[in-house]
Design a protein that fits this description.
Blueprint: E1 2-3, E2 6-18, E3 24-36, E4 38-43, E5 50-55, H1 67-79, E6 85-91, H2 101-116, H3 123-131, H4 137-142, E7 146-149, E8 154-157, E9 166-171, H5 180-185, H6 198-202, H7 218-224, H8 226-237, E10 242-245, E11 252-256, H9 259-270, E12 276-281
Parallel strand pairs: 5-6
Antiparallel strand pairs: 1-4, 2-3, 3-7, 4-6, 7-8, 9-11, 9-12, 10-11
Helix pairs in contact: 1-2, 2-3, 7-8
Amino acid sequence: MILFPNCKINIGLRILGKRADGYHDVLTAMIPVGWSDVLELVPAAGRQSSLTCTGHSLATCPPEKNLVMKALRAVENYTGRELPTDIYLRKIIPDGAGLGGGSADAAFTIRGLNELYGLQLDDESMASIASEIGSDCPFFLFNRPMLATGRGTELRNIDVCMDGIGAIVVAKGETEAVSTREAYAGVAPRPLTPEEDLCRILQENPAHWSGRIVNDFEPSIFALRPTVKELKAKMLEAGAVYASMSGSGAAVYGLFPTLQQAEQAAKTLTATAQISIHVSPINEIYETQFMSH
C-alpha cells in the first residue's frame, strides 16, 4: 500500500494559556496542502517490523523514535494485535518547519494499517490513537480545513474563503528549522479579544486578513531567525495578499489572488534564495488516498 502524507499550513495561531498537562491551549485553523511525503506499508514476511527512511535528515533518526513506528506501536497496543509491517518512508516535507510532516506520516500510518489489516477502527478510535502521538496528528486523519482548539486535538470543520487562491509554501532548510520546545520558550500566552473571531474572518477574502489573523510565534521566531522574517516580507513584496509563518515555524507561506500569480512569484523567490518551495491551488482538499500494489 502506497500513501502520500501531505502537510498543512496554519492560518492564525494564538497561544491562550498553559495547561495542567504541560501543553498549551491554542486556537488555529489548519488547511491541508499537497506537499507530500511517500509512505509504503507492506506486511512483513516474519514477526519483526522494520522502517527504511530516505530523503532528508530523518533518514538518520533511530527507527523506534520515528513517528511512523510510534504510530505502528500505538495501533498494536490499542488493538492488542502484533502487526509486523515493513515501512518505507521517503521524506520530502521539510523538518522543523511547522508544516506537520511527521504528524502526517504518523496519521497516514494509522489509517493505512487500519485499511491494510482490516482493523475496522472508526475515525474516533483512530483520532484517539493519533492524539497520543502528537497534537497535529488527528487533523491529518480528516485532512480538510478545520479549527483546532485545546492542545490542538479538538477539531471542527470550518469554511475558509479560498476560491481561486494560489499558495506558495517555503522552507529555508535545516539551518532555519525550529523545534517546538524552542518556539514555545519564546512566547507568552495572551487572551483573545472580542474583535478576534477567527471563523468569521476566515470567511472573508484573504486580502482582508492582514493584521487581523496573527501567529503568536512570529515575534520571537523572527528575532531568532531574521531570514524567516525577511522571507515573509519578500512574499508580500512578490504580491501575496496574506503571508504568515506556519505553526511554530520556520516555514512561511503566501496566498496569492490566482495560481498563476503564485507561480510567477515563486520564480522570483527561487531566483534570490536557496529554499525548498511548493506551489499549489489552495482550495483543493487533499483527502486520504490509497493505492494498492
